[in-house]
Design a protein that fits this description.
One of its GO terms (cellular component) is plasma membrane. One of its GO terms (biological process) is water transport. This is Uroplakin-3a-like. By secondary structure, the protein is an alpha+beta fold. The chain has three domains: 42 residues, no CATH class; 171 residues, Sandwich (Immunoglobulin-like), CATH 2.60.40; 62 residues, no CATH class. The protein is 29% helix and 20% strand. The protein has four helices and ten strands, in the order ααββββαββββαββ. Strands 1, 3, 4, 6, 7 and 8 form a six-stranded mixed beta sheet that branches. A two-stranded antiparallel sheet has the order 2-5.
């Protein structure tokens, strides 16, 4: 066993530094060397790319008050983050997502949502967008213009977990921005893709928790947490109050009319005047 381990270890070293000519290796040794080289190349991925000491940040609550949701998280796009790496005008940014419990400083890129079971076994590529233009960003004042609101938000923010259709789509083998788990903690990372190469990356974000769903048993179906009997009593009292108001209004009108009429009669004097010698007519004089 020790001899086999030593032989494999020597072959690994020779494969990596190229001291063993290929024609001297048998098929099994060639297979071992191939697997070793592929494994080494994948696991040395992060070490070969400059890491920008910036973490992806949640979108400002002023822009999105209800972020995160139960299945989505909105992040700020990395403005001016990768400028020191001199990216080309065609550079893109890929967003990788992983459950916080399995996040690692090194990982294999290009895995998708299905291949990692939604980030439970490793990071997956959730979204890709053009590198933001640091020199001429969108105007924040455009957020006050309804016709420009959505486009301006898209310039500054990227939403993760907003595409449920790709989860069951057999053709979605590369990029799938599938919904996140409810009440789970996730980490996010930005990768700078320039051409076909990974030119840089950010650090992993701090854990971000999606919202927890409420238990149906805890949902309050009555306004103000009232029971059914209290709602019935409140309804009866409301009806009685309405009837009392219906009686009070006509009584108030009657009382008002009676007072006005009495005032008018109290301001009148009756003075007898002689019109003719045969009879007397009473003329009413009213003083106001």
């Amino acid at each position: 066993m020790k001899f086999c381990y030593f032989a494999v270890h020597v072959e690994i070293r020779f494969c990596l530094i190229g001291l063993v000519p290929l024609f001297r290796l048998n098929k099994m040794q060639l297979l071992i060397c191939g697997i070793i080289l592929i494994w080494f190349g994948q696991n040395s991925y992060s070490a070969n790319n400059p890491v920008v000491l910036v973490q992806p940040q949640l979108a400002s609550p002023l822009l999105l008050p209800y972020n995160p949701t139960q299945t989505t998280v909105s992040l700020e796009k990395p403005f001016c983050v990768f400028d020191t790496l001199n990216p080309s005008s065609n550079a893109n940014v890929d967003v990788y997502v992983v459950l916080s419990s399995v996040a690692s400083s090194t990982f294999t890129p290009w895995k998708n949502y299905k291949g990692t079971n939604g980030g439970s076994t490793g990071p997956y590529r959730a979204a890709s967008f053009k590198l933001p233009n640091c020199a001429s960003p969108a105007k924040l004042s455009d957020l006050s213009i309804p016709s420009k609101l959505l486009s301006t938000l898209n310039e500054y923010l990227i939403q993760i977990g907003n595409n449920s259709a790709c989860v069951n789509d057999p053709a979605a083998t590369d990029l799938c921005n599938g919904p996140l788990g409810v009440g789970a903690a996730y980490r996010f990372k930005f990768l700078l893709i320039d051409g076909a190469l990974v030119k840089g990356e950010t650090s992993w974000s701090e854990p971000v928790f999606t919202r927890q769903a409420l238990d149906p048993a805890d949902l309050d179906t009555w306004i103000g947490k009232r029971t059914g009997s209290s709602v019935v009593i409140a309804s009866v009292l409301s009806s009685v109050t309405f009837l009392l108001l219906c009686l009070l209004i006509p009584m108030s009108i009657y009382e008002l009319v009676h007072r006005v009429k009495g005032k008018w009669l109290s301001g009148c004097n009756h003075k007898p005047q002689m019109v003719e010698t045969t009879f007397t007519m009473v003329i009413r004089e009213c003083h106001w």
